[in-house]
Amino acid sequence: MKGSHSAISSQRRNSGAAGLLFPLLGACLWAAVVGYKPVIIVHGLFDSSGDFKNLQRFINESHPGTNVTVIDLFDRSASLQPMWKQVEGFKAAIYPIMQNAADGVHFICYSQGGLVCRGILSTLSDHNVHSFISLSSPQAGQYGDTDYLRYLFPQFVKSNLYHLCYTSIGQRISICNYWNDPHHRDLYVNSSDYLALLNSERPNPNSTEWKKNFLKIKKLVLIGGPDDGVITPWQSSQFGFYDDNETVVEMQQQDLYLRDVFGLKTLAARGDLIVCAVPGVEHVMWHSNETVFHMCMEKWLV
To answer: Which Pfam families match (predicted)?
Structure first.
């Protein structure tokens, strides 16, 4: 009897330990699965969702169990659709993901996609985006003779593209929505249906509301670098841009920063504006470069 009594006691002890262990294991697994906020990736000009496999892998290796969604819309040539049309399309696809994420989501928005995401964040009053990571995006506009420009508009160079971009027909092409010719500032301000409105560079009756919406983000991470080769000037990825002499004026000296038109200065004062400049990265490599991921993105995706 004594032997069977001790066997029963031992069994009870083991089942008690298991009773403690299994919920603990379950809690750990649960934390691994739901511990990280979902990440939403928005692609750029001429990209598609398949171009972001490396970035998805980096995220899942560093933050296992993260739900990563690359929005499969406006791929390839469809990325030339007008920016407001893209904002509405991406918004409709992203909103259900936000609604299912009680703790919020993160945005990684590449190249032209960074401007799409700004449109979403400005116009969506109940978004729950924590980190907005702008990955080599022409946030202050684009003005350069790049391979993209030669491919799209072979008969134009940067100095005369305004003849097309600042017309009602031109504004139906995404790149013209953020084409910012520093030598034709008035034309840009009066003609740009997208960037000039987002930047409140022309009167915008929604500017107060858009600023309030944008400032709901917890972090703004601006990633870019001097060897990009496409974003021109490269400092546009960090809200720097040319003056009329084509001298780059850094973000902190830009009127849109000084007047805090949509919240950059407020974010900086809050300590929530992060600038990450990485040399040696070409434009098409930002989302596949592991060093960029670890240096500039990883810590903001929790």
So the answer is: Palm_thioest (PF02089)
3-state DSSP assignment of residue 226? coil
Q: Amino acid letter at 225? A: G
Segment 113-141, tens digit of pLDDT: 999 999 999 999 999 999 999 999 999 99
Phi, then psi, of 159 in degrees rounded to 5:
-75, -20
- Annotated catalytic residue 111: yes
What global pTM score does this model have?
0.89
Contacts of 33 (CB under 8 A, 6+ apart): 65
Joined tokens for residue 15: 């089942």
Domains and CATH numbers, the chain: 39-141+204-300 (3.40.50.1820)
Could you confirm whether 283 is annotated as catalytic? yes
The three-class DSSP label of residue 295 is helix
Helices (H) and strands (E) in the chain, counts: 13, 8
Catalytic residue among 184, 191, 228, 237: 228
Q: Which of 5-14, 50-59, 79-88 has the lowest mean pLDDT?
A: 5-14
Distance CA 172, CA 138 (A): 18
